[in-house]
Amino acid sequence: AALTVRFLTRRFIGEYGDMEFIYSHNMTVDGREILFHIWDAPNSQQTEDSSSEEKRIQWADSFVLVYSICDRASFNILPLKIQFIKAAKEGQSQEKVPIIIVGNKRDLHHQRVVSSEEGRLLALSLDCGFYEVSAAE
């Protein structure tokens, strides 16, 4: 949620609940006006209803999966999530689904438990893009 709000408003807000939101945002990219629809869904540690997750996957054209570099569990869930997305999206067509893995909280390097190299290697092994960022900075 912090990255989404930062993208939309250029402001940082540090605390969020476990709420889902759908945002719409116009932006000019390469001289073209683009309308983004962003379904911001927090990762639940509880077992999620797979039909809800399936609905979000079918709705989306691309995916940004964010983990905290300070939280190993948020990183470890990524391979399963990506496999689920690819099975649902690529099973229907031959097109590769765009997926980006983002390690957040780069500013908290002193609390880091997931290395940049681990993030890069995971993205490479799953054929995804990779970035490390700080929503706060």
UniProtKB/TrEMBL annotation:
<keyword id="KW-0378">Hydrolase</keyword>
<dbReference type="GO" id="GO:0003925">
    <property type="term" value="F:G protein activity"/>
</dbReference>
<dbReference type="InterPro" id="IPR027417">
    <property type="entry name" value="P-loop_NTPase"/>
</dbReference>
<dbReference type="GO" id="GO:0005525">
    <property type="term" value="F:GTP binding"/>
</dbReference>
<keyword id="KW-0547">Nucleotide-binding</keyword>
<dbReference type="Pfam" id="PF00071">
    <property type="entry name" value="Ras"/>
</dbReference>
<keyword id="KW-0342">GTP-binding</keyword>
<dbReference type="InterPro" id="IPR051065">
    <property type="entry name" value="Ras-related_GTPase"/>
</dbReference>
<protein>
    <recommendedName>
        <fullName>small monomeric GTPase</fullName>
        <ecNumber>3.6.5.2</ecNumber>
    </recommendedName>
</protein>
<dbReference type="InterPro" id="IPR001806">
    <property type="entry name" value="Small_GTPase"/>
</dbReference>
<comment type="similarity">
    <text>Belongs to the small GTPase superfamily. Ras family.</text>
</comment>
